[in-house]
Amino acid sequence: METKAKKMDAKAVKNFLSNNAIILLVIVLALAVGLKTDNFFTIKNVRNLIINMSPRFIIACGVSGCLITKGTDLSAGRQVGLAACLSAMLLQSVDYSARVLTGLPDIPVVAGLVIVLLIMACFGAINGCIIAFLKVPPFIATLGTQTIVYGICSVITNNQPLGGFKSSYSKVATGSIAVIPYLVIFAALVGVYMWFLYNKTRHGKYMYAIGGNENAAQVAGVNVSATLIRIYILASVLYAFGGFLLGAKAGGASTATGFGYELEAIAACTVGGVSANGGVGTIPGVLVGVLVFETLKICLQFLGVDPAYTYIAQGLVIVLAVALDLRKYLAKK
Amino acid sequence: MHGAHAPLFFGCMQAERKLKTARVPGFPHPLINGELHHLKLEKGNLKGASELSEYRLEMREVVKTFPGVKALDHAQLKLKPGTVHALMGENGAGKSTLMKCMFGIYHMDEGEVYYEGEKVSFKGPLDALKKGIAMVHQELQPITERSIGENIYVGRYPTKHYGPVTVIDHDKMYKDAAEVLEKVRLNFDPRAKLSSLSVSQMQLVEIAKAVSAQCKVLILDEPTSSLTAAEVEALFTIVNELRAEGVSIVYISHKMDEILRISDEVTIMRDGQYVGTWEAKELTTDFIITKMVGRELTNLYPPRSNTPGEVIYKVEDFTSINPKSFRHCSFEVRKGEILGVAGLVGAQRTELMEGLFGLRNHSAGTITYKGKELHVKQPKDAITNGIAMLTEDRRATGILGVLSVADNISVASLNQYLKFGFMLDDSKIEKLVQENKEKMSIKTPSSKTQIQSLSGGNQQKVLIARWLANDPDVLILDEPTRGIDVGAKYEIYCIIAELAKQGKSIIMISSEMSELIGMSDRIMVMCDGRVTGFIDGDKANQENIMELATQFE
After folding, report:
1. Could you report the per-residue pLDDT of B396-447, keeping only the tens digit for each?
2. Torsions phi, psi of B534, nearest 5?
3. Which residues on A lie below 8 Å from B426 (Cβ)?
């Protein structure tokens, strides 16, 4: 009996370790880096981390809906880039010499944001329609729109980096209420909204139902097409918001903005327990995933790893995360 | 080559039959005596002792626990060579789990498997197949876009070598495949794509796969669930031949008449426990049911006290866009009536109902519902008007597997649980779950349990509860008791009878004649996409239903 109990414990420990392998790995790495260097566990560094996380968390929230419905959105990063460029074009300071839209009057930051969100929502609608009506697999559909969005971005910016933002736009990223940066407040608001949406509304339940079994959801009266389109529109709106914040944070935007963000977001979701098998995933999980992924990046930075190598590390983490996730479901069968 | 093989096959059969009749009669009842076995097994570990072992396959004291459920509690199975051994039990009794433990798909917590006297533990189905144990699953998983031959030899293709390069020997594969196809009486070119076969033929391909591996143990899981009567006969012929060759067959089924006809021995399980093993010829249906359920079932069908009223749902000239599917179908259903729908496999009953529910397109026809014409383009249109449909394939179009019982019950009726017009009220959903759990005695550890971990009968009850939450007036039930054990079946019949009594109209498709005759006020019979007639429930019998069901044009 005793050996059995021990065996069960050993199994539970093993399961816990493999289910949370990446999270644990990163915690160990962070502790090691913290011990090795003396300026890792500082308020400044933590603050930096949280500010970096904010736009990425917003973007990951967008991708999470696609993943939960067994889809994906590879156009996320490029959409972030386009949104950043659009925001930049709309919110350049009127007296900036290299202003792109020269005839444009000075528009308030909020109006600029709304315009960007609306434009980007159209791209979400396009993604959603391709997936819901033309039944193109999300992987292929968004791979196509990724390239289209990048093309559009190159055309409208003429491949020139954009700068010279008006101060009220830059302040979106640099400002804070007391000690809490605006960025963090925005991310928190998005997180709460998404949590509510996923757990307390019909839309959320329908989303999980589609991820669990699309055919059964349809039989149960779920309007699958409408729900999918809504998910992809919401995703694009969140990318747009993320892009808007990134532009403000960087003080400039170019076609390269947002490059690779879709994979970071997908990886963060997967590390955070959003399953590639569909129907499973939570917003707190996404938050943990983003935290882990950003911590990993900062650790590598502190260790003085060449940025080129960090791509390799990130790619490995993505594959590992998905493999561990699928392993969970295979083991259950 | 085919000719040379066949006589051998039948020759073995005769020899084996003599052996069998000599051995079977003198056995004690119940058949298995555990103590003797332990002695034998110690010897069995010695090389060469395997011939001495009375059993070809033995599973002992198998325990398997899933979170919160003891799926197997010291279960056992002892299989003699050259016999058909029926494994029976209600859904959730642990039959499939026991088989999966043997194949190594599940890792058992305790217990042992002995095969031909030696202790074994298989790594998976392919490993078992290579050692001579094969299983034909209830839900086939064929590779439809590849050839029959490839499906038979997948994972163990015959190979030939060109120096260091190993390639698949297609000639040998198709030659061998043709031989085994001959054996299972499947007159097809092994190079034909599997998708050109019917479900029953695909099943035969699976059996051919077992034959090709020279299997000594063949497990058939609900093999007749989608077969017509003639196909069942053909299957039985093959089973008899295999038995005569000395193959041991485990036959899992709920159909009593089949069990009593085909099997030599019957092992019954209940709640993961071993109840006993008997000789089939000593058994009666009543005895089996009593042992399976653990109590006596006096009535197979509950008494009904519904009274059909005015016509509520009327279908006229309903025709599919697919010319081979349903066409010119007209019928009506009264308030509080149970309309049975009979027909052979392929009669397009499911397709018609799915068309009426908006899951398939139609090119002509009208639905008049409560006196008004109803247009249904998607299920939502039907649902909002108070029509519900329990689909045939629970796993494919019913349950939301990874979601909780609560989510599964509430998904079709979320509009009812809102507060402030947009926010879901979890306490209302929890109340719905608890009410239904009690009313229909759904066995689930909690409302947050994933539905896929429940037994088939309980999943079905959850799905019925999902529809009842909408308080529908018309319920279309497509094979509501398929793959459900006897006890749960009766509970579902009671629910159906009660709903009819409440004035709800029920359209029930079933392939079990006795169920249709026992439950329906009227039976609509379909054949090849057309409605061929109606019979009153009290005048219906097998013969007049079959007559209408076989009216091919």
Report:
1. 899 998 999 999 999 999 999 998 888 999 999 999 999 999 988 888 888 9
2. -125, 145
3. 200
Map residue B325 onto helix, strand or coil.
coil
CA atoms within 13 A on the CB side of A44: 3
Residue-wise pLDDT for B67-119, tens only, equals 656 788 899 999 999 999 999 887 667 888 898 888 888 888 899 999 988 89
* Residue range B133-151: mean pLDDT, rounded: 83
Inter-chain CB proximity B403 and A201 less than 8 Å = no
The residue among B103, B377, B402 with the most chain A CBs within 10 A of its CB, best to mutate, is B402
Q: Which residue of B has its CA nearest to A332?
A: B106
Enumerate domains of chain B plus CATH numbers: 2-132+215-293 (3.40.50.300), 306-386+472-553 (3.40.50.300), 400-471 (no CATH)
Inter-chain contact B359–A219, Cβ cutoff 8 Å? yes
Question: What is the structure's pLDDT at B91?
Answer: 63
Segment holding A91, helix H or strand E: none
From the CA of A210, how many Å to the nearest CA of chain B? 8
Q: Which residues neighbour B540 within 8 Å (Cβ) at sequence distance 6 or greater?
A: B340, B516, B517, B520, B523
The total of structural domains in chain A comes to: 1
- For helices A109-132 and A138-157, what crossing angle results, to 10°? 140
ipTM of the complex: 0.84
- Phi, psi (deg, nearest 5) at residue B533: 160, 170
B43-to-B49, B50, B116, B326 alpha-carbon distances in Å = 6, 9, 12, 63
Q: Backbone phi, then psi, for B395, in 5-degree steps?
A: -75, -35
DSSP states along A123-180: HHHHHHHHHHTS---HHHHHHHHHHHHHHHHHHHHTT--B--B-HHHHHHHH-EETTE
Tell me which residue of B278, B242, B274 sits closest to B260, measured CA to CA.
Answer: B278
Q: Which among A208, A212, A223 has CB closest to B380?
A: A223
Residue A213, chain B, CB below 8 Å: the answer is yes
What is the model's pLDDT at position B18? 36
A215 touches chain B (CB under 8 A): yes
Torsion of CA B14, B16, B22, B25, to 10 degrees: -110
Tell me how many degrees the CA angle B46-B48-B54 measures, rounded to the nearest 5: 90
Which residues are CB-contacts of B252 (< 8 A; sequence separation ≥ 6)? B86, B87, B88, B95, B96, B99, B138, B219, B220, B221, B222
Among A1, A219, A225, most B C-beta atoms within 10 A, so best to mutate, is A219
Is A52 a domain residue?
A: yes
Q: What is the rounded CA–CA span in Å between residue B526 and residue B547?
A: 11
The overall pTM is greater than 0.95: no
Q: A320 — phi, psi (to 5°)?
A: -60, -45
Helix (H, G, I), strand (E, B) or coil at B513: helix
pLDDT at B479 over 60: yes
First-last CA distance in chain A: 27
The CATH number covering residue A216 comes to 1.10.3470
Domain span including residue A326: 46-332
10 Å Cβ neighbour count for B361?
A: 11
Q: How many CB pairs below 8 A link A and B?
A: 80
Residue A8 lies in a domain: no
Report the pLDDT averaged over residues B359-382.
Answer: 92
Is residue A268 a part of any domain in this protein? yes
Structure confidence by residue, pLDDT tens digits, B308-339: 999 999 999 999 998 888 999 999 999 999 99
Cross-chain residue pair A216–B398, CB shorter than 8 Å: yes
A326 neighbourhood in chain B, CB within 8 Å: none
The token duo for A80 is 């972030």
Locate A203 and state its tokens: 């839309």
* Whether the bond into B158 is cis, omega within 30 of 0: no
